[in-house]
């Protein structure tokens, strides 16, 4: 998920979707906005890992509010997961160079508010769209199945 932008009812719907789907990890690619969103995110049954977006303030308070749920990183998050090297970031400014680098098998990003998936060589690049729905009027999240790298976009 990405770009939830304080839309509490839609964050709640995303959490319910992830809980009902039985996901084991939720990635949030930034632009939560206010730490008040942690109230809904704490209802996740899965662990959450996030990165900060360009509109997120008070990083220390965010980390405090998400304690016990997961972790939140400043700009990038890299990890091995289900046999894949993952990269998550908010801003897509270095996206093309990172995609062609062949360092990652999956890159998740946000910022554009537009759901998108494409494959660059062996790298799957995914933007789940905007959870908050403020910019496009459409709220979406994405489900990524590993190791198959199958992506399903879900409209909330």
Q: How would you summarize what this structure contains?
A:
This protein is of the alpha/beta class and 156 residues long. Helix content is 20%, strand content 33%.
Topology:
Blueprint: H1 8-21, E1 25-28, H2 38-41, E2 47-51, H3 59-65, E3 70-73, E4 76-81, E5 84-89, H4 95-100, E6 106-108, E7 115-120, E8 123-128, E9 140-145, E10 150-155
Parallel strand pairs: 1-2, 2-3, 5-6, 6-8
Antiparallel strand pairs: 4-5, 7-8, 9-10
CATH architecture level-2 label = 4-Layer Sandwich
Q: How would a textbook summarize the main sheet? A: 5 strands, mixed
- The rounded distance between the terminal residues' Cα atoms is 11 Å
* Beta-strand content estimate: 25-35%
Q: Can you tell me the number of structural domains?
A: 1
* Coarse morphology: globular
Strand order of the largest sheet: 4-5-6-8-7
Class by helix and strand content? Answer: alpha/beta
Could you give me the name of the CATH homologous superfamily? Metallo-dependent phosphatases
User: Fraction of residues in helices?
Assistant: 10-25%
